[in-house]
Write a structure and sequence with these properties.
Blueprint lengths: L1 H5 L1 H22 L5 H19 L1
Helix pairs in contact: 2-3
Length: about 55
Amino acid sequence: MRAFLENLPALFLSLAFGAALFGILARLVGAKRTWPFFLLALLLLLLALFLQLE
């Protein structure tokens, strides 16, 4: 459990990257509303940065 908590910022960064990539791919396919994916990516990125600074 300790290793999981130590690597939590890396998990959030990878999830943020995946959400941004999924938003880009959804936009390329033709989806109209992709802003929730980018919002999720931003929130995960901010969470990872916040956890890294503590």
